[in-house]
Amino acid sequence: MLQRLTAVILTVYTLLVLGFFLFGGATDYTSFIAFFGHPAMKAASSIAVLATIGHSWVGLWTIGTDYIQPGHWGLPDYADKIRLGYQVGCLAVMGVYFLAAMIAIW
User: CA-to-CA distance for 67 and 75, rounded, in angstroms?
Assistant: First the structure.
């Protein structure tokens, strides 16, 4: 459910940005800055970043639970610890992505 909801959010955001570029909004630097600097667009961009993180988490979690299991690929009995490390690493990367995006947006 989360992945479908985030996909819809990202689609709407993509169409919004494409509309800006395709229909003459991005004619110069000033209009570009005005569009992306508007508080509503900053909020939309922040929501899109959160949707990207949520969307990727579902996919990465699924990969971890499907492929990092004891017995798969010759993994030893401590595959659960490997999977936990993988998931913590994914969350750390997503945290850095979130912080960098929020600094860039706001």
Answer: 10
CA 68 to chain centre: 23
Q: What separation in angstroms does the CA of 32 have from each of 38, 90, 104?
A: 10, 33, 15
pTM of the model: 0.85
Q: Within 10 A of 30 (CB to CB), how many other CB atoms are there?
A: 8
For 32-54, what is each residue's pLDDT tens digit? 899 999 999 999 999 999 999 99
What would the DSSP string read from start to end of 36-88?
A: HHSHHHHHHHHHHHHHHHHHHHHHHHHHHHHHSSTTGGG--TTHHHHHHHHHH
Instruction: Determine the pLDDT at residue 20.
Output: 92
Question: What is the count of structural domains for the chain?
Answer: 1
| Structural domain of 54 | 2-105
User: Residue 90 sits in a domain of what CATH number?
Assistant: 1.20.1300.10
